[in-house]
Predict the structure.
Amino acid sequence: MVANALPVPEDIARLISQLRQRLDEIEASDTLTALRIVGDLDSIVETHGSYAARMALRSHTDQEIAAALGGMEMATAARLRRYDTRRYF
């Protein structure tokens, strides 16, 4: 967790940790399966990231979002562009 960032719920943090560990194991032996998993994760990020970014931008300043994510405004803006490309075109 990044200092000063909002904490991730413990159950989600545990799932992310387990997912990273398992993906590391799979990458070592089956790169095609690992790639498939990454594609599935991309789909989740695309759907939920886009929605969360739009909702956050409606009710929070860029500074508030950066603080919540534990990053600098420029890095946060890049992340939001990746999540919600419709806003930036």
Remarks:
- The helical segments are 10-29, 31-59, 62-69, 73-83.
- The chain has one domain: 11-88.
- The chain has four helices and no strands.
